[in-house]
Specification:
The protein is built from 8 helices and 23 strands. The longest helix is centred in the middle third of the chain and has 18 residues. 19% of the residues lie in helices and 35% in strands. The protein is α+β, with helices and mostly antiparallel strands. It has a 6-stranded mixed beta sheet with strand order 2-3-1-4-5-6, with helices on both faces. Strands 7-8-14-11-10-15 form a 6-stranded antiparallel beta barrel. The chain has 3 domains: 207 residues, Rossmann fold (3-Layer(aba) Sandwich), CATH 3.40.50; 85 residues, Elongation Factor Tu (Ef-tu), domain 3; 108 residues, Translation factors (Elongation Factor Tu (Ef-tu), domain 3), CATH 2.40.30.
Length: 429
Amino acid sequence: MAKGKVHINIVFVGHVDHGKSTTVGRLLYDTKNVDEQSMRKLKEKAQQLGKAGFEFAFVMDNLKEEQERGVTIDLSHKKFETAKYYFTIIDAPGHKDFIKNMITGAAQADAGVLVVAASDGVMAQTKEHVFLSKTLGVNQMIITVNKMDMVTYEQKRFNEVKDEVSKLLKSVGYKPDEIMFIPTASFLGDNVANRSANMPWYTGPTLLEAFDKLKEPEKPTNLPLRLPIQDVYNITGIGVVPVGRVETGVMKVGDKIIAVPGREGNGVRGEVKSIEMHHEQMKEAEPGDNIGFNVRGFGKKDIARGDVIGLESNVPTVASEFTAQMVVLNHPTVITVGYTPVFHIHTAQVACQITEIVKKLNPATGETLQEKPDFIKNGDAAIVKIKPMQPMCIEKQKEIPQMSRFAIRDSGTTVAAGMCIDLVKKEFK
């Protein structure tokens, strides 16, 4: 790990085939994070699979199935350093079926790069990704207007797409004048790491330079420790190793911790024996660190993805019910009381029932439009009461915002997104 450099998680989002993976691959290649020989192998492989032109994308799409389909399925992580920062790049899938990965992906990002093809402009998925990025707390965005070579590097087309994207960003609460827009042609390498000779009209930063213009994310180290578990491994000779990202607080070797709800729903207690990140031992981990840690007292069957770890002295909140502010994105009909979809909250996936629609809000201003409406539909914002069907960790937006956000999914699409504003705590024995 780069000592002394601030760590930033950056997520690449955008519509399928707009060039996210290619942009990441090109960036890593042009900054010598991928060597010539590996690139040659990927190029040959791409040709063999009849996917000539996908070699940069293959840098991140390292799952065999992804290479054959030419589509990003799971989240890939790559380390990457600039003059100023140390980055973990998260390449989030653009494909509809994979938006739930995007949800867990964006939830982990300090900043986002939205890739929009100059030829297509804003597509349905572009909108969804921008909205989710905002709801899931990705506070800084860089926009690349990619595939400029397909529109003969025209400044006019760049400005049209920029205006279109600016409107979209504004509608969800980003400030377009604080956002960098960069015209790129990632496959050819224009304005990714190296300045393009094809767009003399553009005088702003390359994508690589834009990375260093990002603001340092504030680390919520003063909040209580919260670490949602992503996976649990059982490693011979070491024991149970949960893996996850510290959302808030600090975890130290020797800490007495508890994982909730845990298999029995009453929490599992243990002591941190060791912490590791990128194969290096650490004494402590802070927000943003993706770590594996070994715990004395945890059995393999005691804990699972979706459980949250905190200190015994400040147990993560398990809600028996909660109140949320949410926006309906994409529901085929209307949402009424009794609707029980799957909620994605940090790394947990839990069926929850909507028990009351308290009021409908103006999505732009937040003012009340209607008390106790019978239903809500696409585009509506509302305050609703929700009951999880099984114990689930969530925190209030005002207390630990990083743990308050959720997305609702139903039959393969993201139906709504929101955050917890109040809750009823489940008491532990």
